[in-house]
Amino acid sequence: MTTFQGAIFDVDGVLVDSPHEEAWRESLRELMESEWADIRDQTTWSPDAFTSHVYQQEMSGKPRMSGARAALDYFEVPDADVRVDGYAQRKQATLVRLIEAGDFTAYPDALRFVISVKELGSRVAAASSSKNADSFLRKIRLDTFAQEHGIVSQLLRPGLTLLDFFDADVSGRDFAHGKPYPDMFLAAAHELGVAPTDSMVMEDAAAGVEAAKAGKMAAIGIARADDASLLAAAGADIVVTSLDQVDLGALAEGRLTTMSTH
Question: Which residues 6+ apart lie within 8 Å of 109 measured at CB?
Fold first, then answer.
């Protein structure tokens, strides 16, 4: 039995390669080339300036309105107060279109890890700021994935989705404070029935790692976007580029370490 009684997973960038970044980038480009063309020269925005690094540092892991405001502030868009709602709405419409088109994939390492962690005895929860997280989780069939990857587990049954597999799901809820505050992760631990200090969080965003640490939880930073230094600086206990690198033997003993140490 692992001493990590609870394992809490962010969704976008951890479990799924979701099109959030693309939706934020494309919707802002559309606005700058149409309705906001008259103020474009007053901003620091350009298509090339909206990089993955900007997304990871300024927006990743934040609730929709906070993410929209962060982007507008970063690019010095005038009258951000009156523009933020329109940007957030356009981003959401773009995202829904991409989801419906199936324009996302699940990370195999993350699916292997969530199954392994539950096999070790942890209860598992999904915790994402995104109100679209459940749409992703519902589309991912764990039984099919296990079959394709030769994974045998008594925890899996025919028709099981990733959403079904979680013991708790607090994704998309409105909390008083978003990341980097720990409200969401504390709610997830509470619903799992475990103490925060007995929980670990899997995050790909610096704000998420900061939220986990603020809640007195362990944090695994997953550097899928060449941002290992950001995650380490945020206080991650270990940083990996794939959850396959986490030492499951050590995890069963309550230690976070990577396979590379062997």
Answer: 242, 243, 244
Last residue of a domain, one of 45, 69, 100: 100
* Residues 190, 73 share a domain: no
Indicate if 34 and 113 belong to the same structural domain. no
Confidence (pTM): 0.82
Which CA distances in Å does 217 have to 4, 8, 187, 200?
Answer: 10, 10, 12, 6
pLDDT digits (tens, 9 = 90+) for 116-162: 999 999 999 999 988 889 988 998 999 999 999 999 999 999 999 99
How many helices and strands, by DSSP H and E, does the chain display? 12, 8
Angle in degrees, CA 105, 170, 249, rounded to 5: 65
Q: Is the peptide bond before 196 cis (omega within 30 degrees of 0)?
A: no
Number of Cβ atoms within 10 Å of the Cβ of 30: 15
Rg (CA), the chain: 19
